């Protein structure tokens, strides 16, 4: 009984369990077979699924695994194999022997498909970026783009769109984004001629990002206005396009369109894209403040965004109160954050809104007040604050921000009595904006519906038609018999 209690046979089952779990290399081989089948069947959906499975394995990629997969998918000794292997770092010899032993059981393809070749480029490029080897990533991405220019296959379009994104990212991480602008324009022209709509969508966003990175908003708008538009194929690319469009509209002082684009981008973005949604909300808050609106507190209390939106919450509070000193202190306190978010120039524009808000509060509180007191309450720090206050008040009256009159002789601002807001068109405008929002959401939901392909073209066969007619005759006969029974 003592020998049974010792249980000396326990380690064996544990080894068998670990051996049955598939390795990362085995998963990559399954993805390669999926890409091969989709290439032969010309089904793009399988390519999309293969990329999705690859993103799941992204954190498990190692140099030894990638070298083993390259030996499996490509011909060892070929030009592509040699080039991609040179980008991978040399690992431990023991690990290399294990991987080559596993890959030796599979014979490599004599003539690898172009889809598999591009997929190998994509794998190596993702690995180099994750390992922060940006110079090698630049070389690998440039070689992959040169190879892509010679391929015109619809099954490569999805893989090519991912390669375009990482191509731009590798140059952005090294600070050389301006070098590839001409190449991106050439790729966009090629994608347009090949009717690669997903590639056009991706490259247009990359070009907009390239222009906005260097504050070239006029060139970005010219490209956007002249680029061909079509129905969005990727939700992620459409969200990016809306975000860039919102930034362009904001700089061009078209705040209403910018607000709509930014809020739509934040709504359509996936929940996992937290950083993207934070950026959309930052710009949307600034745009709403420039429009004279005060965002709700719930905007700043969204899950995972409280810390990132804290500077904008304090800025909103300063604008809401109309305190110019508090606004200046918040702008100086978070100046580094605003500069990194590239919203510092927009915050400078908010100074006029802060003054106008404070002036509105003063006009509501006082029926008559001197311009010297207005300058003191607004805390104007100019050489002649009374003259500045007079010009600010006159401009606010002319723009309709306050309902008051200006007495130049006595130096007073006389506020008129506030009337009933329901006697104005304000409620009508509010209801109109809500109805327009609901209608746009309904139209987006209808456009997002998916139907089986060619369902309206499928005709009923003769056998099904006879069967349907027979069922209808039997049903009519049954109803007639029931009617006879009733009489």
Describe the structure.
This protein has helices at about 1-5, 10-20, 25-40, 45-55, 65-75, 80-85, 95-105, 115-130, 135-150, 155-175, 180-195, 195-215, 215-225, 235-250, 255-270, 275-290, 295-300, 310-320, 325-335, 335-340, 345-365, 370-380, 385-400, 425-445, 460-485, and strands spanning about 370, 405, 410-415. It has 25 helices and three strands. A three-stranded antiparallel sheet has the order 1-3-2. The radius of gyration is 32 Å and the shape is globular. About 70% of the residues lie in helices and about 0% in strands. The model is unreliable at about 1-20, about 90-110 and about 485 (pLDDT under 50). It starts with a helix and ends with a helix. By secondary structure, it is mainly α. A hairpin with a 4-residue loop joins strand 2 and strand 3 (about 410-415). Keywords: Proteasome. It comes from Vitis rotundifolia.
Structure, briefly:
By secondary structure, the protein is an all-alpha fold. 70% of the residues lie in helices and 2% in strands. It has helices at residues 2-6, 11-20, 24-41, 44-56, 63-73, 79-87, 93-104, 114-130, 134-148, 157-173, 181-193, 197-213, 217-226, 235-251, 255-268, 274-290, 297-300, 310-321, 324-333, 335-340, 344-365, 371-378, 385-399, 426-447, 462-486; strands at residues 368-370, 404-407, 412-415.
Describe the secondary structure blueprint for this structure.
Layout: H1 2-6, H2 11-20, H3 24-41, H4 44-56, H5 63-73, H6 79-87, H7 93-104, H8 114-130, H9 134-148, H10 157-173, H11 181-193, H12 197-213, H13 217-226, H14 235-251, H15 255-268, H16 274-290, H17 297-300, H18 310-321, H19 324-333, H20 335-340, H21 344-365, E1 368-370, H22 371-378, H23 385-399, E2 404-407, E3 412-415, H24 426-447, H25 462-486
Domain PCI: 239-420
GO cellular component, one term: proteasome regulatory particle, lid subcomplex
GO biological process, one term: ubiquitin-dependent protein catabolic process
């Amino acid at each position: 009984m003592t020998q049974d209690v010792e249980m000396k046979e326990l380690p064996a089952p544990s080894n068998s369990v670990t051996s049955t779990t598939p390795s990362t290399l085995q998963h990559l081989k399954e993805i390669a077979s999926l890409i091969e089948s989709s290439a032969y069947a010309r089904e793009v959906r399988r390519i999309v699924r293969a990329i999705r499975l690859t993103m799941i394995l992204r954190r498990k990629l190692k140099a030894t695994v990638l070298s083993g997969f390259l030996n499996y998918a490509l011909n060892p000794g070929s030009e592509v194999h040699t080039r991609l292997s040179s980008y991978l770092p040399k690992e431990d010899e023991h690990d290399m022997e294990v991987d080559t032993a596993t890959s030796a059981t599979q014979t490599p393809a004599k003539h690898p498909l172009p889809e598999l070749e591009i997929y190998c480029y994509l794998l190596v490029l993702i690995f180099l970026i994750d390992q922060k080897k940006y110079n090698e990533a630049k070389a690998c991405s440039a070689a992959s783009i040169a190879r892509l220019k010679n391929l015109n296959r619809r099954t490569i379009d999805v893989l090519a769109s991912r390669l375009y994104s990482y191509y731009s990212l590798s140059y952005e991480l090294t600070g050389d984004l301006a070098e590839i602008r001409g190449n991106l324009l050439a790729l966009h022209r090629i994608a347009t001629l090949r009717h690669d709509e997903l590639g056009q969508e991706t490259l247009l966003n990359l070009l907009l990002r390239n222009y906005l990175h260097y504050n070239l908003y006029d060139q970005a708008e010219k490209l956007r206005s002249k680029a061909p538009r079509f129905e969005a194929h990727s939700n992620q690319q459409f969200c990016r396009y809306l975000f860039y469009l919102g930034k362009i509209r904001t700089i061009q002082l078209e705040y209403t369109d910018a607000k709509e684009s930014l809020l739509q981008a934040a709504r359509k973005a996936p929940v996992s894209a937290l950083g993207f949604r934070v950026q959309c909300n930052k710009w949307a808050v600034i745009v709403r403040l420039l429009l004279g609106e005060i965002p709700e507190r719930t905007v700043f209390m969204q899950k995972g965004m409280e810390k990132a939106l804290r500077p904008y919450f304090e800025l909103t509070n300063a604008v809401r109160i109309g305190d110019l000193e508090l606004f200046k202190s918040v702008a100086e306190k978070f100046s580094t954050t605003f500069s990194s978010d590239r919203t510092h120039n927009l915050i400078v524009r908010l100074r006029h809104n802060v003054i106008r808000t404070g002036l509105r509060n003063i006009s509501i509180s006082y029926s008559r007040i001197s311009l010297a007191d207005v300058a003191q309450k607004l805390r104007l720090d100019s050489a002649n604050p009374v003259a500045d206050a007079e010009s600010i008040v006159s401009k606010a009256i002319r723009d309709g921000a306050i309902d008051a009159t200006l007495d130049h002789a006595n130096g007073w601002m006389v506020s008129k009595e506030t009337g009933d807001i329901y006697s104005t068109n304000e409620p009508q405008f509010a209801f109109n904006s809500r109805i327009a929002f609901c209608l746009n959401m309904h139209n987006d939901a209808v456009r997002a519906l998916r139907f089986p392909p060619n369902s309206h073209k499928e005709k009923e066969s003769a056998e099904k038609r006879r069967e349907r007619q027979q069922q209808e005759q039997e049903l009519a006969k049954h109803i007639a018999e029931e009617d006879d029974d009733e009489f």
